[in-house]
Every structure is written in C-alpha cells, then in structure tokens.
Design brief:
19 helices; alpha/beta; single chain; formyl-coa transferase, domain 3; Rossmann fold; seven-stranded mixed β-sheet; 2 domains; three-stranded antiparallel β-sheet; about 400 residues
C-alpha cells in the first residue's frame, strides 16, 4: 500500500534567485547531447524532470560505473529529478503528455519520427501546450536523405570532416578522444532554447527546435569550412610555426597570432638567423616552410625543460603553455585559486566537477548538486504535477512507472 506521505512537499525549488527559476523542463532524451542541454537549464534554475526507461538512461552504462552513474551521466544529469517510465505500460503516454502540458521545455532525442509514433511528438504535445519550446536532438536532423540514419559522436566526427582536421603526421584521420560533438550540440541547443524562451516572453509562443549533431558540428567548424570552400582541402597554414613541441621533460604548446610573435620566438630561442631570413618575413611567406621551421625550433626546444622554456618564452612575450595531463590541470595553482573545478561529493565519492561558466556553482546542500538514481523521484514528480494518490497507485500497478524501493 502506497503511503500518502509521498505527496507531501518535496525539496524546495532549487531555482530561487536564478534566471530560469520557475521554469519546468521535461527531458526524455538519453546519452549526452540532450541531457547535457537539460542539465545546463537546471543549473540556471529550471526544474528538470529526467524521464528514463526502467533500466536507466543508456549513458549510465558507458565506461566505468560509479554506483548507478558513469562519468557521462554525472556530467549530463546533475540536479535533475528522475522518473523511470515504461512507455509500453498502460497509461504511460497519457502520463507523459500530462506532464509535458505543464512544462516550458521538452527535450527528446529519438530517431526522427519515433516520438510522433509514440504519441509524444511536437504536434501531439503542442495541441495541449502551445507555449512549449520542444527540442528534437538527432544525428542528421528531422528531414533529408540521412535523417533516419543512426549517428553517434564518432560517426559525425568522421562525416563532418572534423577527423581530417585532426590527422596525424601520416595523414591518418583521428577521432577526438572525448564526446566533442555531443557536447557542442548541447551548447547550441541550450543557446537555442534560451533564445526561444526569451522570444516567448514577447508573445512568440512555443517553437519546435531541430538541433542536430551534423549542423552543430558544421557551425562549430565554420572557419575551416569557409577556408575549404575558398581554398580547397589544403588551405594555407595561418600561423606557422605554431604547434606542439617536445621539451626535455614534456611538451609545449606555442602559438603566434601577430607578426611580432615570430621575432619574439626567434629571440627567445636564440635563432636570430631565422628572424633575419627573408623567406620567413611574414605569415604568408612562412606558410610553405612549416615543416622546416618546426624541425629547426624542435631541435632547440628539446634541450631544456618545459618550466625553463616557459620562463624564457613568457619573458619575451611568446604565447605558450605547458601541455598538461588532466590531473596536472586539476592541481594547477591558477585552476585551484579560481575554483574552476571544485571538489564535489555524491554517495560517498569525491570528485572534481568543472564550474559552469556564467553561473556560481551550487553549494553542497543545493539540489542542483545532487544526482538522481534511476526513478528515485518518480512519485514526488507525479505529485508535483497534480496526480492524485489513486492515480499514482494505478500507474504504478499498471507498470507505467517504476518506483524503486
């Protein structure tokens, strides 16, 4: 017998004083792109309802499990409330539509057409909630020849040309070693949702946003795509001899953004002969000589430690940095001083969680700093959205939602 206590007030609104306070978001997406967009909305104050299948969002199972979470899940679902829903259960679709009718934003990441077949597509939801900002996140978009194809971060890195921009010395395309495409898609989605919500205040009404990995990646690669369209597949290098150089004990990342930086680099490395060589007098003239210059400077950099070179380079105004491991970055004094990745805790585990730019990180007692287990908030969510004790009991009995013990 379900206790009536489940419909007592849950935790206070976490969004008080934050820009999206009072907004409700229904996140039925899985993976990283959609959920991370939802997480960002939550960090800015929205109440985010995470609807996931009884076995949990599949991102919970990627990589090493930490309790009921993975690193990707911890990144994407912070501060949400979870309800575990079997969309085949009796009354489940009506339940989802009833929740969506009271929300400001809904995020889904089904293959195009599936949400509509389930009865929770934009047309279905907008019929009862014309003010809803409905976000569809997919691989190739809601229309077009490839819209029905499955797509992942790796697939789009390859399709978009991103891998070719990261080729190794032998010309082999390389995948970026993290979910770059999913992350940048989430950022574009968050931006689009924020703009749509702003427009809605002036009477624009709801909107269906088609945000896809392919187009988000293209937007991210805009300067390289412009170069390719104007100059072909091998555009002129723009800042030779910028690059990564091996030092005596590590690696240095060096860049040049002004002509004066080349002279400074030559002075720092005692290579005035290169500065005086008319072949290297400008970015344009240096462009064809990239390999030669990289070899010349590479020989010099291999003779001292990274720390020694940073002192020398910075004294001459050369823009350079140590190439860190992530664990090096976490203990860097600057990173620690500005609180860029404060230590946080969940279920007895302590780990660093980078602060979201533009918003103060939540404190230990803030609900934005918690991570839900699968379905951990289901009954409370239904109470918050006006379901009676009798309705909740019936939905649970029919398998529409699963409430863990």
């Amino acid at each position: 017998m379900m206790s009536i206590r489940i419909c007592e007030p849950n935790s206070p609104d976490p969004g008080v004083g934050l820009p999206f306070a009072g907004l409700r978001v229904l996140d039925v997406s899985q993976g990283l792109a959609g959920p991370y967009c939802g997480m960002l909305l939550g960090q800015y104050g929205a109440q985010v309802i995470k609807l996931e299948p009884p076995e949990g969002d599949w991102s919970r199972g990627i990589g090493t499990r930490h309790g009921s979470h993975s690193a990707i899940d911890l990144m994407a679902n912070r501060g949400k409330q979870s309800i575990a829903v079997d969309l085949k259960g009796e009354g489940s679709i009506a339940m989802v539509k009833r929740i969506a009718a009271q929300c400001d934003v809904m995020i889904e990441s089904y293959r195009p057409g599936i949400a509509a077949r389930l009865g929770i597509g934009y047309v279905d939801i907008a019929r009862d909630n014309g003010e809803l900002v409905y976000v569809s996140i997919s691989g190739f978009g809601q229309s077009g020849d490839k819209s029905s194809l499955p797509a992942t971060d790796t697939v789009i890195q390859g399709f978009s040309g991103m891998m070719s921009l990261n080729s190794d010395g032998e010309g082999k395309p390389r995948r970026l070693g993290f979910l770059a495409v999913d992350t940048l898609t989430a950022l574009y989605a968050f931006q689009a949702v924020s703009v749509a919500l702003y427009a809605r205040r002036d009477g624009a009404g709801g909107k269906h946003l088609d945000i896809n990995l392919m187009q988000a990646t293209a937007a991210f690669l805009t300067p390289k795509i412009i170069e390719a369209s104007l100059e072909g597949e091998a555009p002129q290098a723009i800042n030779v001899p910028a690059g990564v150089y091996r030092s005596l004990d590590g690696w240095l990342a060096i860049t040049l953004s002004k002509e004066a930086h080349f002279g400074a680099l030559c002075k720092a490395t005692a290579r005035s002969d290169l500065a005086d060589d008319p072949r290297f007098a400008s970015f344009q003239l240096r462009a064809p000589h990239g390999r030669h210059l990289e070899a010349e400077f590479g020989t010099v950099f291999a003779q001292r430690s990274t720390a020694q070179w940073l002192d020398i380079l910075q004294a001459q105004g050369v823009v350079a940095s140590r190439v860190n491991q992530l664990t090096d970055w976490l203990v860097d004094p600057h990173v620690v001083a500005v609180g860029a990745a404060p230590l946080t805790h969940d279920q007895g585990r302590a780990f660093h969680f980078p602060a979201t730019p533009g918003i103060a990180p939540p404190g230990p007692q803030d609900s934005r700093a918690r991570w839900p287990d699968v379905g951990s908030d289901g009954a409370h969510i239904l109470c918050d959205f006006g379901f009676s004790e009798k309705e909740i009991a019936a939905l649970r009995a029919n398998g529409a939602f699963v409430q863990p013990n």
